[in-house]
Prior knowledge:
alpha+beta; FAD/NAD(P)-binding domain; D-Amino Acid Oxidase, Chain A, domain 2; 9-stranded mixed beta sheet; 6-stranded mixed beta sheet; globular
Amino acid sequence: MNERQDLIIVGGGIVGLATAYQYLQKFPGRSLTLLEKETRVAAHQTGHNSGVLHSGIYYKPRSLKAENCKRGKALMEGFCAEHDIAFERVGKVIVATKPEQVALLGNIYERGQTSGVECEQIGVERLTELEPHARGLAAVHVPGAGIVDYSQVCAQLQVCIEKAGGQVLTGQEVTSITPGLQGITLRTQTEAHASKFAINCTGLHSDRTLEMAGGERSARIVPFRGEYYELKPEAHHLCRGLIYPVPDPKFPFLGVHFTRMIGGGVECGPNAVLALAREGYSWGDINARDLWDALSYAGFWRMAGRHWHTGFSEVWRSISKRAFVKALSNLIPEVQAEHLTAAPAGVRAQALGPDGAMVDDFLIGKQGSLLNVLNAPSPAATSALSIGETIIDRLP
């Protein structure tokens, strides 16, 4: 048994690291251990993130997403400035390409206004000034939206945690969790760690970590893979910043879009297809347990029945590059298949209720001496330092 800690955090993605950082900022001198099953931090969702600093314009006012995104962006920019991590405010345009999207675009603008996000409704002429190759009927401009490399952020968070006296232990997969009267014990393949309290920030495995501690999975994680292309250098001029479509309000994904990257280049995507493994970055990555967990869940089939047409379109874009290009050309008509090269995919952990509803907000709950972050999709990376504060405030 290792020395008893004041706090143990499971999961070395950006939410776990940001929470550890904020804990040691608030309680200097306390002991903290963060356990990560991979050999490095930010190995999954964070490390496959497209690097957008979101503004918070999309999210329901006063939701956890809206409240944490705006503050989290400011904290993230401050952290990056303090530690010389490159970030840039490149601006975003959200573009209505069909008449029926114009009213939905107006709703997004109103949400942004209510949440205090700097944004403006613009016409075709202003859109062309901002993004000369984009086409649409109307748009909303969000000048403060930006880009960053979240893997670099995580590497610096680890440095800060360790300088403050915390431990970040990689290659330590938690295999059992035992709550007790005096706290909680977490065992890995090689060690046991005890604490009064622990925090579950395991992302793609957060529901299973809850279950390991004796909790019930009221919502289940269903993994969705997002596949990307990248513009070849000769086509980089087609996109100056961030170009997004008007999202379908019934579906919690933003649709294929263009993202200028902080390291150079432009990423295009993603689609959203069921991943055949929770860490499945291609159709060839199949985990029987993960797949059965999704397909045996009534909530998945209720969701699939509700969104089968959209789901079919997403799968078709995965199979057909031509279909993917067609979706991209709604925003930038000049884009062609020869402009695109395949880029690494990512997997999103989406909490799904038994009624088939996708959990739309961040979801944080307590199970005895374990605090669980059960749903933290985008904009969790942007919001991470604010989410960390929110989590720490919920500790007893």
